[in-house]
Amino acid sequence: MKGIGLDKSITAERSADRKAQAVIVAVVLFTLLPYLFGAWLALGRKYFWIHYNVDDHCVYLAWIRQAQEGHFFFENRFTTDPQPRLSVNLFFWAIGTVARWTGLPVLLLFHCIRIGLGLVWLWTLWLLYKRLLPEGACLPALWLACVSAGLGWLFWRDEGILAPIDVWQVEAFTFLSLYLNPLFVAGSLLMTAIMYDLWRATEEGSWWRAVRAGGWALLLGNIHSYDVIQVAGAWLTFLALRSLLSRRLDIRRWLMALVAGAIGLPTVAYQYWLYRVDPIFRHRADVLTAAPAVWQVLAGYAPLLVLAAVAVVLLARERRLRDEPFLFLLCWAGVGVGLQYVPRLLAAVGLLLPLNFERKMVMGAHLPLCALAAWGLWLLVRGLPVRRAQLVMALVIVSTTPSHIRWLIRDGHNLVHNTANTGIHRLYMEPEEWEAILWLARNTRAEEAVLTFPSFGVFIPAFAGNRVYAGHWGETPQFAQRLRETLHFLDVRRPDSERYELLRRARVKYVVAFSPEWGGWFGVPLRDFVAQPLTGTEVVFRNRLIVILKVVAPELAAGVPSG
Description:
The protein is mainly alpha-helical. Helices cover 61% and strands 4% of the residues. The chain folds into two domains: 2-417, no CATH class; 430-557, Rossmann fold. The protein has 25 helices and six strands.
């Protein structure tokens, strides 16, 4: 009889695994469909296969390009300021190295890795959920992780960061991360792997698991450093709360956590050292990404929070609030959501830390929230007949998806109208623009910097390899000032003396200018540098939309050229 029961258990587990695999494959492959729609709409234009935060993706692609060139350490090519080449990101270095070895297109690799790591991430999450949740809650938890959001769809007309976070914050949700950002997929996978191995280590007393968790933390500290803060905070909070409730200090568990932390520490320490010695890197890290208002977070996670509260109430009735899986998920969710507000609380008491990336620290909080929500949902329906319980669960899960549906509709609209969410970038580039970037890639060196308008210049480090004077709001120091200077350079009404002064300070070799007919795009009348040549420069490339000028007068380095 025991053998029969064991066989049934194994059969049920395999059936659940097959269902989970089907969900994972379906969701990950679904994220490819909007990109195929975008490719269908290209109509001869250059399509970048990027749907959100084009500027940030160009930063990733600029690092990948440097790896393609054979560099292990990266520089910031969105500024012409002097800097050491000390930064490294193993994730993007690996993509660039594979591209160099195979000759495969970077954008193809970009999405293949997004899809491949997405499959691995969701499978690892499934394994973690199976360890933590009752059997009937595991598959609903996976579904919620894959599709759930909050009440942002009710704010249909509000596209900005004043709406609930499920309208605009990619890293706060699993589906959006899977769909839009391979870096978030890699970081979330490592976070999940750390939690899985730490849990297995404490369950089984396995030091090998603790060491492996430290290895994942070592990678995470390099690839997406600030995620280490959430993982460490959640795990240490869980250990502390467990020790407090049991009134016993489990030395082995604490030592395992310390071993994992010690293994993962070097990459985090390197990032902090880099912050101290590299002013350009420090500028990037100090750009404030403020945490949203509390109501925005609550609204963005509202269905999950309600179901999680149900789990708390029903488990309290059963006197199971001290169950370790529940305590762990509660600590992880609490730290994941609340951590983003810690920097400003510390600043209020005079303790200033380099943690201006406040809202980014919410990445990963969606995972324990979905687990708690599924637990609550399962507790609500477990007394119902099986089919009715499944129907109720399905309806509840579907009711959490409208914000993501809204997001996909908005992306489709942006593709049709060639407008990115940033408002200043486009999702397609005209053939003449792409021709100019290819000319730079083939005829110039990386150290030969370019002056051009940032909405075009953001693509140059990624696809041509040059530095640019102004390219990215967060990567370029004094970006607002340099944006104004660039616009003044292109403005037909500005004197040449102003242009020469900027060329001297900017340390650029090339200028990319635009046809005067594009003046409406820039908001100022553009100078025709072919009809009105700029002394000390020569036209080296020209088509219907773009003119590339080469700075040839050596005296420009010292000031205004004579004559």
